[in-house]
């Protein structure tokens, strides 16, 4: 009887942990736990009334859900710390943003590669900075994170930031201070990247084609802003038998619509001119051949940039492929160009010229390229998975692969975390503490790790009471 009661108590605690995790992931307030419990009890009355007491044992009070969230976050952090002991190499991505109460939040993500060449990509730490955010203070928080997680400096190989002076400064910024710290610890060279998405945006601004976009926006606004003009234009296209029934609307907020608007306007340039002329509008610029050539060029470039933006937004993205973009890209992406040989070693080691490879890798590279079995494996699994099949007899290539696989190409994960932060800490939840905010964001951003619900529940020594058991902290 006692064993059964203990088992039910542990199950109730596990259930409260599971619900708390879902509440955190959905960015809902901790008080939602009580609403969930009411719903469960209503369902229970209809489907399984004999199980009602079991559900009553599940504690979902606000304080309990908040405590569970903190414990879940601690469990994820401990798992990451344990995994970190096996990292051959790791890289960091760091960025800073302010929450709704104007508190600066520094997010630090880690991408580590273990001895099996498996990648772990998780939130290393989120630090609230209530004072200034100088390079020195940011470095101190990053250093504190690494020390808390017992991560050695000599395994740090890469750092990706947004390029702000406090981050990218070679002397007083985060980059300069980390390099100095690594030099003190006799660590290797730090590879630093300015977030590739930020670089791509800067390249896009270098096109100097505002006059084209302004003209197109003015035309589209004339057509779409007034309902009558919009309906008449749609009817006009139908009368002409155009395969396109409308032009999409563009605003600065909807940046992704820019490429679509340009493309449609170029395809409908003749129809648009005829419609504008029917309304007594001057179309001299629209019919100008030079303008149309510039519009065609901008249409293609912006379409490529929009596609690149989408490709760069996500997890697990490593390889930057920008060879087709020529507007200032050679300058902006010089840091990636410097690593070209190392990228090629990872993407296709069988096609690399051995003489161009680093000296310490040449003998192993020759052995690899002469191995038909490994070549067959590379052809079957692809470049992304192949490093996991490198044998222990090629230690230098394994280390090289681990270092390259650990690198971030962008601060996308930081930006994504800040989006989650804005969803969670709203003006209506401005009193959410830093501890609870950090716990919620660690849970909702977790990808490689999952909470150990059974272990967490077994550690609890719950005493089943009549009203609301399982609320022990």
Count of DSSP H/I helices:
23
Number of strands: 5
What general outline do the C-alpha atoms trace? globular
**The CATH topology of the domain at 83-198 and 408-435 is what?**
Nucleotidyltransferase, domain 5
Secondary-structure element pattern, one letter each:
HHHHEEEHEHHEHHHHHHHHHHHHHHHH
State mean pLDDT (0 to 100 scale). 82
> Which radius of gyration do the C-alpha atoms yield?
28 Å
Q: Order the strands across the largest sheet as they lie in space.
A: 3-2-1-4-5
Which CATH architecture of the domain at 83-198 and 408-435 would you pick? Answer: 2-Layer Sandwich
The rounded distance between the terminal residues' Cα atoms is: 25 Å
Strand content: 5-15%
Task: Give the CATH class of the domain at 83-198 and 408-435.
Answer: Alpha Beta
Category from helices, strands and their pairing = alpha/beta
Low-confidence regions: 250-256, 321-328, 462-473
Q: Give the biggest beta sheet.
A: 5 strands, mixed
- Helix content, binned percent: 55-70%
């Amino acid at each position: 009887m006692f064993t059964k009661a203990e088992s039910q108590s542990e199950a109730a605690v596990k259930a409260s942990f599971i619900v708390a995790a879902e509440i955190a992931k959905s960015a809902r307030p901790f008080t939602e736990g009580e609403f969930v419990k009411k719903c469960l009890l209503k369902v229970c009355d209809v489907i399984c009334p004999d199980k009602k007491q079991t559900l009553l044992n599940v504690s979902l009070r606000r304080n309990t859900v908040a405590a569970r969230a903190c414990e879940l976050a601690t469990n994820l952090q401990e798992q990451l710390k344990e995994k970190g002991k096996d990292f051959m190499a790791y890289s960091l991505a760091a960025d800073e943003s302010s929450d709704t109460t104007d508190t600066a939040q520094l997010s630090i993500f880690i991408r580590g590669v273990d001895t099996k060449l498996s990648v772990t990509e998780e939130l290393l730490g989120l630090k609230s900075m209530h004072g200034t955010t100088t390079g020195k203070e940011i470095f101190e928080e990053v250093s504190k994170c690494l020390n808390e997680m017992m991560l050695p400096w000599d395994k740090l190989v890469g750092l990706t930031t947004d390029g702000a002076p406090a981050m990218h400064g070679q002397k007083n910024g985060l980059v300069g201070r980390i390099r100095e710290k690594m030099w003190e610890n006799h660590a290797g060279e730090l590879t630093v990247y300015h977030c590739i998405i930020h670089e791509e945006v800067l390249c896009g601004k270098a096109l100097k084609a505002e006059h084209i976009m302004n003209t197109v926006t003015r035309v589209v606004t004339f057509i779409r802003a007034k309902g009558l003009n919009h309906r008449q234009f749609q009817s006009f296209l139908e009368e002409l038998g155009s395969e396109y029934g409308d032009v999409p609307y563009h605003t600065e907020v909807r940046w992704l619509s820019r490429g679509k608007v340009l493309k449609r306007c170029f395809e409908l340039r003749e129809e648009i001119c005829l419609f504008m002329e029917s309304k007594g509008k001057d179309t001299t610029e629209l019919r100008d051949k030079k303008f149309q050539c510039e519009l065609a060029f901008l249409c293609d470039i912006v379409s490529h940039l929009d596609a690149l933006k989408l490709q760069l937004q996500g997890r697990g993205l490593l390889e930057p492929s920008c060879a087709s973009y020529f507007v200032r890209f050679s300058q902006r992406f010089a840091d990636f160009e410097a690593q070209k040989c190392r990228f090629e070693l990872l993407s296709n080691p069988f096609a690399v010229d051995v003489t161009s490879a680093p000296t310490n890798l040449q003998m192993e590279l020759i052995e690899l390229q002469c191995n038909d079995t490994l070549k067959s494996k590379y052809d079957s699994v692809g470049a992304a998975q192949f490093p996991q099949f490198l044998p222990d007899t090629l230690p230098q290539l394994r280390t090289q692969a681990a270092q390259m696989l650990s690198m971030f190409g962008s601060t996308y994960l930081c930006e994504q975390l800040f989006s989650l932060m804005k969803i969670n800490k709203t003006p209506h939840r401005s009193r959410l503490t830093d501890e609870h905010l950090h716990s919620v964001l660690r849970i909702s951003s977790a990808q490689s790790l999952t909470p150990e619900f059974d272990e967490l529940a077994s550690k609890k020594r719950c005493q089943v009471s009549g009203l609301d058991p399982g609320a022990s902290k």
